[in-house]
Design a protein that fits this description.
single chain, 463 residues, alpha/beta, Alkaline Phosphatase, subunit A, Arylsulfatase, C-terminal domain, 2 domains, ten-stranded mixed beta sheet, four-stranded antiparallel beta sheet, 29% helix, globular, binds calcium ion
Amino acid sequence: MASYRAGTLAVLCAVGLACIVRPAQAQKPNILLIYADDLGFHDVGFNGRKEWKTPNLDRLAKQGTAFRRWYTAGVVCAPSRAALMTGKYGIHNGVSANNQDLPRTQVTIAQALKDQGYATGLFGKWHHGVTRPGEKDYVHPMDRGFDEFFGFTDAVHAWQKFPKELWFGREMKPVSGYCDTMFADHAIDFIQRHRDGPFFIYLAFTAPHFNIEAPVSEVAARRRDVGRAYPDKPLAPVYAALVTQMDKEVGRVMRMLDDLGLTKNTLVVFSSDHGATFEQGNQGSSAFLDSNFPFRGQKRTLWEGGVRVPSLVRWPGRVPAGVVSSEVMHMTDVFPTLLAAAGGSPKQEWRVDGRNALDIWQGGAAPTPERTLFWEWRAEGGNQLAALRGNLKLVISGNTLPEMFDVERDPAERRNRIAEFPDLAKELRASLTAWLATETDESKQGTPREPHPATRSTGPHER
Ligand SMILES: [Ca+2]
């Protein structure tokens, strides 16, 4: 039937009848960017979680491409989100610590897409920092390119799963209910109002970040499966419910796209701001559940468990379905890639670090030679640096000797193989030092730091 139609169309065109079929490329896709908070690599079915199910995310992965090597750019909320929004490393966009506010000078993906004619909405968690010099307050998301905003601006407020009030734009109003459900409701409403498109939605859920609380019905359901498996761990089903409730919210939003016939022309990206935390706030739940398996580490570390996040992209007919990609993606790539999908490209003066990965999302391979990716975590008492090229990652933790891991053969980063690759180790260390030297004044502002061993002319690693 399809080939008959295509054949008929070709004949009609050949005889000179008006062809009003618009090529798919000419229509700008809607863009739905879904961001989870502290979701570990192993927390979703498409990465092997068995104790609970995430059928809606798994379906997206089946209908699109899941990325097994998608790296975040920051290991706490604000730096990860700022890198997502700007396509730039924290040392270049002004946010490499949780308390730094994104400077007004930085251009966000929402602003860039707005310039492409998009209606833009943020539903969920923004994470502001301390007021910058010259500002009266933090820079509000509605001054960042979002036409509409509903949610939290403050990270500590965002611990509340059943908040009493939330921001509607610039106004705080009373609300009732579970926050992620309200965020999905607002996204659905926005989709309905902007069905003629193009729209950009940044749906920033707060699950499964603590507080470890979830809707009663979902917790009850998880007590029946996860709870039975771990009767001595009462918080395990609650953590699971945070994830499965989020999955349900994703499903509701997808159904609205289906109902309005928008699925084919909507690019969906799902990711997490960084790995799961094993800190006090989670009361041991995600640690017990091994949320970052098979990786070492957690939030606030540069081991794979901190930086490698569950991620997928769906764009029917454009992004291959049912594929698990091993290409290395970096969170800073999202900005230029979404902008490319919308028919734009970043201006040179924005100095975006990420690269347009649209070819990779569409099934192509990464260009060679391989690029080097960098991380730094030097706030809140942390002191760790890392550089990745291909499968080899140099990690410098505090004052200890540098280490090198093959993250594909040894995802748990157990075997330090630096002695096998002395030249590469030296080169990566020099690249790290050069990269750190590009830190902007805005990034230095508000985060006094000790010089890291990697930047000293002689360090313990040279002994
Ligand atoms: Ca987070």
